[in-house]
Amino acid sequence: MNKKVLVLTENFPPVSGGSGRWFWELYSRLPEEQYLILADDIEGAAEFDKTHELNIIRMPLKSSQWGLKSIRGLKFYWRVFWQIKNIIKHHRITHIHCGRVIHEGVTAWLLKLITGTPYLCYVHGEDVETAATSGEHNLMVKQVCKHADTLLCNSHNSANIVKRLNYASDDKIHVLHPGVDASGV
């Protein structure tokens, strides 16, 4: 069976910032036919998507509530879950790559519970440290990390934070440093 990966991330160009740029630099260099990127539908996205050959689906991926205890948070996860479940079926997705632990990782964890689709999750450090300050978010992150096949940390410091907070052990954690495109230098 051919691997078909859904890259689930709110942060993807034209969003500016570190993780969005990292994902662009990484996934723009991988075989297009193996990756489908699901990114937030923001202003300027349609114009940006005309400038490259990546397979991108855009849909709203923002929420003011990322917890599961609020009605707004539940509605967000319910909507995103069903939309992505349909994408998984339609595009024959075999794996998910999550841009962050919350909310992308939570969505992938819920999808894995129902569809069995394995996932890996990127960890940036401050995302898990911030989640640890909330009982609800801490519990959610523990579940995401427990059920993820792999956690890709952007640095050894981020990996140490994950271990210190008891989210995962060494066997699940891998460090993948963001690269630099030196071709324009």
Key words describing this protein structure:
single chain, 185 residues, alpha/beta, Rossmann fold, seven-stranded parallel β-sheet, 7 helices
Could you please describe the fold and organization of this structure?
By secondary structure, this protein is of the alpha/beta class. The chain has a single domain (5-175), classed as Rossmann fold (3-Layer(aba) Sandwich), CATH 3.40.50. The chain is built from seven helices and seven strands. The chain has helices at 18-27, 45-49, 71-91, 101-115, 126-131, 135-147, 156-164; strands at residues 5-9, 35-40, 56-59, 95-98, 119-123, 150-153, 173-175. It has a seven-stranded parallel β-sheet with strand order 3-2-1-4-5-6-7. Strand 2, helix 2 and strand 3 form a beta-alpha-beta unit. The chain starts with a strand and ends in a 10-residue tail after the last strand.
**Relevant CATH superfamily:** Glycogen Phosphorylase B
Helix percent reads 40-55%
How many angstroms separate the termini? 40 Å
Which radius of gyration do the C-alpha atoms yield? Answer: 16 Å
Percentage of β-strand residues: 15-25%
How many strand elements? 7
Q: Looking across the biggest beta sheet, what order are the strands in?
A: 3-2-1-4-5-6-7
Low-confidence stretches: none
Q: What is the CATH C level class, in words? A: Alpha Beta
Tally of domains: 1
Q: Averaged pLDDT, please?
A: 91
CATH architectural type: 3-Layer(aba) Sandwich
The secondary-structure class comes to alpha/beta
Counted by DSSP, the helix tally is 7
Q: In sequence order, what are the helices and strands, one letter per element?
A: EHEHEHEHEHHEHE
CATH topology: Rossmann fold
